[in-house]
Structure formats: structure tokens, C-alpha cells
Amino acid sequence: MRLLLLAEAEAEVESARQYLNLQVLDLGTRFLDDLELTLQEISLRPASFPKLETLPDDQAYQRALLSVFRYAVIYECLDEEIVVVAVAHSSRRPSYWLNRRNPG
Fold this sequence. Notes:
Number of domains: 1
Distance between the termini: 15 Å
CATH topology: YaeB-like fold
CATH superfamily: RelE-like
Helix content: 25-40%
Number of helices: 2
Strand content: 15-25%
Number of strands: 4
Strand order of the largest sheet: 1-4-3-2
């Protein structure tokens, strides 16, 4: 399946990369590497990650945690593609991204 990142998710990735690079040299690059591995896993096995059970059944979003950084990839599986709606830090308020829902 094709993997698509919404513009808002891409902006979150870039913001995180810039912030992390300001903290430690090349930390943003390590974040991107961790994210890429997670996105590859999602592409290969999209159904293997848990559904966000706090949402209504008609909103079947799933969450994959990065292995090193405290970020989660929030995505939705559609017929032909996987849509990443957010790359969220774990301390960010939950479900802030719900208004990004892809109409499919």
C-alpha cells in the first residue's frame, strides 16, 4: 500500500527535526532514521499496530510508537493507501489531530 503523510504531519516531522537538532548535533537525523523505520513497519504490516480505542468505532486510527524517540505515528488505513495524520510527541494533548481526518 502507498503511504501518504498529510501536510500537517510533514510539518510536525520537520518541526521535531529542527528542535532536536538544536538540542544535540544530529539528533534530528537520528529522529528521522527512527521515524523511517517505523514508517517501513507500518507499510509492511499496517494491521499489526493497535487501534486507538478511545475513539468512536467509525474513526479507525492506529498508532505506532517510534522505538527510540517519544513520538507516535497516527495513521488510518484506507482502501488504497495508508494516511499518516500526525507524528505526535507523547506528551502532546491527545487527539489534537482529529480535525485532520482525511475524507478518503
